[in-house]
Automatic annotation (TrEMBL):
Transmembrane segments: 401-418, 424-442, 449-468, 474-497
GO MF annotations, alphabetized: ATP binding; kinase activity
Name of the molecule in the record: Histidine kinase
Lyase listed as a keyword: no
Domain Sensor protein KdpD transmembrane: 402-506
Subcellular location(s) of the protein: Membrane
Length: 646
């Protein structure tokens, strides 16, 4: 009997379930509590209910203040808000418009027990500390202040595409689902659609950014019923997650189904982001682990800037929704997908529905044919997608085939002049040169086509009877079959090596860098030696300026770093924020993204020891997800070493 079975029979929680509970408790230690008031549309009473509950809690003796509330001129809501203390918001002048934002520093300084901040999905004014309001709330929670906030269902990241399909209106401001799953309480504000429409006609629903016709379409009974159902379903998912967590932590017996695992294959395109959100919903429905994979082929190694943005945005969406991200290169997309699925016990694969004219040669069709025992889900984009006709046509002619044709022509000409000098068997060996070249340098399909073409040319020009495709000598036929077999074997091996070796080298380089850094840090005994070791390894990471900041009297100071590091007052402020909030900030993030540097806190065992700082020399360079992972690994290893010498 294994440990899991014995523990379940004894009525004790599994160790891994207790670990999850312990990790969550550690993450939430010292943080404020988050209460979200969720509605299926504007006007259901989220802000009113939030204010009522706040007044009730104040009567219990709690210190409560308003950080930001939009009453939209409703008399009843104004009356409630007037009974609470208000921390004045700040005004930001943006292109002639005065934008009001919560005064984050004032809220942190005032430090009430509970602060009310409306409109969770709001995008902060340019130049603000964070890009999104939910990030402001995360900082407030981290400071130990509880938060009440409001949001509508269409602003939840995973629900965005569904709501847009129903209403015809897509909102640009969304909040990651993980933010909601970390909430202490979500209260659904639910009223019948007919009552909401009555409120709309009475002028009690604020719809500033929607034209009258859009209002009538959005608030139709059918739309409201659908939105209400989505909100109820989302609440059921949240409740189900909470129930499962509590049941596992208390070893409550239940019919736990075998785990599902979803693999999502995406390619650079305008619908990649939508597909990731759809995959999240599918995985959530099946309670499945999910992995987003992108396989770069030879044809896709030179992506445009727009294609890179599409791919990176999709990967960031996957991370924000809690998915695992895998990116590597390969020659045969279906083969790599199936291989990965078999190795990682994948039970479901999600792919985009093929839309080109070469549907039967598409990677999707070939994956379906080879995916025995694995369920396949095809994603259909919710919006119309225009595909150029040249991308829909089968790619029968490629530059590689043209090069192979030239090689066959040159070899055939050479054999023509040698036909009376050497034997036909030697001519056949020479004719094999284009096949071997194509197998070594091109894809399998090109190599096989080259082999067949070379066979036909040789048979036509050099095999009796001449200038026909008839074969009298069966030895030549056996040789021709060998041609194809050789081309297939060589091309398969060469393709695998050509695309896997660079990936292996990159992986080995990363592993070696981490291993060497770990070994070097083990042998140091003083803080400054750790900083010097980290700095030396960071200099091997990329071209740019590096620094390590540690706390001292009056703030952070540079323990070690490049003399030309762009340490302006703004950069000091970003580094200080990353240190105090234990979160990555600066360039390449959504927190203070206008900074020059990228700042990663060195944190281990709930203690922050300092901040790693990195700034590209070329301001146009992009900080890739791989670069971010390496810097975070370095920061964590450095923090572990510092913890040992403290």
């Amino acid at each position: 009997m294994n440990t899991a079975e014995r523990t379940a029979e004894e009525g004790r929680p599994l160790p891994e379930d207790l670990l999850v509970v312990a990790e969550r408790a550690e993450q939430r230690a010292g943080k404020g509590q988050l209460t979200i008031y969720l509605g299926y549309a504007a006007g259901v009473g989220k802000t009113y209910a939030m204010l009522e509950n706040a007044l009730s809690r104040r009567s219990d003796g709690l210190d409560i203040a308003i950080g930001y509330v939009e009453t939209h001129g409703r008399a009843e809501t104004d009356a409630l808000a007037a009974r609470l203390e208000v921390i004045p918001p700040i005004s930001v002048d943006y292109q002639g418009l005065m934008l009001r934002e919560p005064d984050l520093d004032a809220i942190l300084k005032r430090h009430p027990q509970i602060v009310l901040i409306d409109e969770l999905a709001h995008t902060d004014a340019p130049g603000s500390r964070h890009a999104k309001r939910y990030q402001d709330i995360e900082e407030i929670l981290h400071a130990g202040i509880s938060v009440y906030t409001t949001v509508n269902i269409q602003h939840i990241e995973s629900q965005n595409d569904i709501v847009a399909q129903i209403t015809g209106i897509r909102v640009a401001e969304t909040v990651p689902d993980t933010f909601f799953y970390d909430a202490d309480e979500i209260r659904l504000m639910d009223i019948p659609p007919e009552e909401l429409r009555i409120r709309l006609r009475a002028g009690k629903v604020y719809v500033r950014d929607m034209a009258e016709q859009a209002v009538r379409r959005f608030f139709s009974v059918e739309n409201l019923l659908a939105l209400r159902q989505i909100a109820l379903r989302f609440m059921a998912q949240v409740t189900d997650r909470q129930m499962l967590t509590r049941m596992r932590a208390r070893a409550i017996p239940g019919p736990w189904p075998a785990g599902e695992r979803l693999l999502v294959g995406i390619r650079p395109g305008p619908t990649a982001d939508q597909m990731v959100r759809a995959a999240y919903r599918l995985a959530d429905r099946f309670r499945a682990d999910w992995i987003v994979i992108s396989i770069g082929t030879e044809e896709e190694q030179n992506l445009t800037d727009q294609e890179r943005r599409w791919l990176n945005d999709a990967m960031e969406t996957a991370r924000s929704l809690g998915g695992r991200v895998v990116r590597y290169r390969g020659g045969d997309i279906p083969g790599e997908l199936i291989r990965y699925a078999r190795q990682h016990n994948v039970t479901m694969i999600m792919l985009g529905k093929p839309r080109g004219l070469d549907i039967f040669y598409s990677p999707v069709y070939r994956t379906m044919v080879r995916s025995k025992g694995i369920d396949i889900f095809l994603y259909e984009p919710k919006a119309a997608v225009s595909i150029p006709i040249h991308r829909q046509l089968p790619q029968f002619v490629s530059p590689n085939l043209i090069v192979s044709a030239v090689l066959i022509t040159l070899v055939t000409i050479a054999n023509y002049f040698l036909r009376n000098v050497i034997s036909p068997s030697n001519l056949l060996i020479i004719q094999l040169i284009p096949v071997v070249a194509a197998a070594l340098f091109f894809r399998r399909r090109t190599a096989i086509i080259t082999a067949i073409a070379s066979i036909l040319v040789f048979d036509f020009a050099f095999v009796v009877p001449y200038y026909t495709l008839t074969i009298d000598d069966w030895e030549f036929f056996i040789s021709f079959v060998g041609y194809v077999v050789i081309a297939f074997i060589i091309s398969s091996l060469a393709t695998r090596l050509r695309y896997l070796l660079p990936q292996i080298r990159r992986s080995e380089a990363k592993v070696e860098a981490v291993a060497v850094l770990s070994r070097d840090l083990v042998n140091v005994a003083h803080r400054q030696e750790i900083f010097d070791t980290l700095y030396r390894h960071m200099k091997q990471f990329s071209e740019g300026a590096f620094a390590i900041f540690t706390p001292g009297v009056g703030g952070l100071f540079m323990s070690v770093g490049d003399p030309d590091y762009p340490l302006t007052q703004k950069e000091r402020m970003i580094a200080q924020w990353a240190f105090e909030n234990c979160r990555t900030a600066g360039r390449g993030t959504e927190t203070l993204p206008t900074g020059v540097g990228h700042y990663v806190p060195m944190r281990a065992f709930a203690v922050t020891f300092g901040v790693l700082a990195f700034a590209f020399k070329n301001p146009d360079e992009v900080l890739t997800p791989e670069n971010k992972d390496i810097l975070q690994t370095m920061a964590y290893l450095g923090a572990l070493a510092l913890e040992q010498v403290e």
